[in-house]
Target: ATP-dependent DNA ligase
Amino acid sequence: MKVPVKVDGRELTLSNLDKVLYPEYGFTKAEIIDYYSRIAPVLLPHLQGRPLTVKRYPNGVTAQSFFEKNAPEHTPSWVRKVTLPAPGSTKNRETIDFAVVDDLPTLVYYANLAALELHVPQWRVDEDGEALPPDMIVFDLDPGPPATIVECCEVALMLREALEEDGLTARPKTSGSKGMQLYADWDCREEPSDYAKKLARRLEKEHPEQVVSVMTKKLRPGKVFIDWSQNNPAKTTVAPYSLRAKDRPTVSTPLLWKEVEGCERPEELVFTAPDVLARVEKRGDLFGRA
Model:
């Protein structure tokens, strides 16, 4: 069944609204579109100007999925698109036509495509579609079992202190999966990947029982991997307030530092779409505060 709707003056056709995309939770496509529509006021500022990569789950989180960088051929003409070089493309493309989610109609359009996960780089494009220097730096904290997000919180506090020493204010969020991320506004004092790598290696040297800075799996059990490579211009990180394709509709959720400081159990930092809507209503956009 197809339903024509108008969103901020744009005409869209929504489809399969009763399809359950999170079977264990019973969360439907209609509820996904509703979540993204209601979270849009705090989500859109973190997407605007950033080339979009999505992970689509047309038949739900337990079925096949695919990453999509190139805007689909049937993308409406009113969706902003930017053509950017694609070095190292796995499909041998020289360029990619990225969508940029600058408004609510575009966000709803992608939600209707079952684009559950929204991923963006640490840089924006200007009005002409030219890439700007990175404006953020990110540290992706990935726990190696039996470590959990509890251990990630401990490492996040180390990172916060180190960043403060360099005049940078860190903002934490959950990944919506098993780990978390720390962001800071970036002033281009050097290449962000170089800076992040040096800081990750320093913390590994200072806390060898807790931290690892390389991806080698055999080194990671019980430790937190600080993935500094997310600052490569070709890489993306899940956006604040994006859903994740887990058993439940969990969300990459901005946190208060007191939540990081007080975390004792992993379940304390698991938030679903309804949880996040309630948090935002109470606290606003925690990620909008430096």
Remarks:
- The mean pLDDT is 95.
- Residues 81 and 99 are 4 Å apart (CA to CA).
- The domain at 133-235+250-289 is CATH 3.30.70.3300 (Alpha-Beta Plaits).
- The longest helix spans residues 29-47.
